[in-house]
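Q: Could you fold this chain for me?
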Amino acid sequence: MRGLGLKQIGLLIAALSAQAAAAAPTLDMVYGAVASDPYMSGEGADMPPHPGAVVEMARAAAKACGVTLKLSRLPGKRLLTEMQHDQHDAAFMFSHSKEREAYFDYPLRGGTPDPRYRLTTLAYSLYALKNTPPAWNGGNLPALGAIGVNAGWSIADDLRAKGAKVETAKDSEMNFRKLQARHIVAFATQNHIGDRYLEDHPQAGIVRLQPPLSRKDYYLVFGKRWHRDNPALASCLWQQVGVLRESLLPTLLRRPWYRQP
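A: Sure. Below is the predicted structure, expressed as structure tokens.
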């Protein structure tokens, strides 16, 4: 630095800082504030030491693509609204719907989501009281009565499209309480969430009904503006998700803190 004045040193530091920032861009990524073990753990803004298998996948993908990841959690409806207005760069885990496709970008192939780049695939089922289950046969949703769904979940629109009466609540715990109080006849949720509740509350007298409602692929999605400005980085992250789903996710799900019921 000998021979350089303060102004020159300042300019050099600024240039080096800008170069470092360019080498490691920051990605503002958000996910839901409700636990969905083993994929997303903890409640609210909390990020526990073992934050969930998909959270760890996101971190690994960002590292592989040379991205500094800024992670935060938001309630479902607020997350959707803020992503819709490009207030964040990326979010997970989202199944596909045409409405959501208008708000943020999925990895597409031929105009439809490319399952090669999905985070994971999850099944949905109805959960009901063991002593008084509705007569579910796989196709009679309109006849069942009120079905509970977590607010902001796309399964609500799927059920309404099939003629079901849907009631939303803020989270799974509230929906299970509504079920036990007989305010709803069934609760539609992801199998891993419902089965974990049954395992943890064997006295609740709740069962999973057959057949399942559906199976859905879940994706990492990007805000439209960010994706437009960073197409190569988005492609890198999606490709890493596809690789990590096969290589890292099975290993994560075998760890004791991510036990599955």
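A (continued): The mean pLDDT is 91.
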